[in-house]
Amino acid sequence: MDIIWAWIILLIASIIEPIWVTCLDKSENFKYKGWGIAAVVLVLLCLYLLSIPSNPENIGPGVSYSILAGIGAAGIVIIGRVMYKEKLTARKLLFIGMIVVGIIGVRLISG
C-alpha cells in the first residue's frame, strides 16, 4: 500500500474515534439502541481502519496508535466544547496543544 494512502486511512480512523465515543455517550448505556448500534459499528470500523496503517510495512502500530489516540483526544475535547458546552480553560488548551505537538513530533521522527 502507498504510504500516502496509509496516512489518509489513519486520519479517517482518527476522525471516527471521537465520533464513536460521542455515539456511545448518546446511547446512555445502550438505552438508546440506535446510538449504541452506531457506536459499535463505528468502533469496529475505526479498529479495522487502524489495522491497515498499523502494518509494519506502512506506518507501524506504535506510531499509528499514538496518532489515533492523540487526534481522538483532541477531537473529543472539541466535541465536548461544541456539543456539551464544556469549559476550555487555559490548562486544558495547553495540554491539548501538547498532544498536537506530540502528534507532529511523532510524525516528523517517523519518516
Give a quick set of tags describing it:
single chain, mainly alpha, 4 helices
Your description of this structure?
This protein is an all-alpha fold and 111 residues long. Helices cover 79% and strands 0% of the residues. The mean pLDDT is 93.
Strand content: under 5%
Q: How many DSSP H or I helices?
A: 4
What is the radius of gyration computed over CA atoms, rounded to a whole number of angstroms?
A: 15 Å
- Topology as H/E string? HHHH
Number of strands: 0
Average of per-residue pLDDT values: 93
Task: Give the gist of this structure.
79% of the residues lie in helices and 0% in strands. The chain is mainly alpha-helical and 111 residues long.
Topology:
Blueprint: H1 3-26, H2 33-51, H3 61-84, H4 90-110
Helix pairs in contact: 1-2, 1-3, 3-4
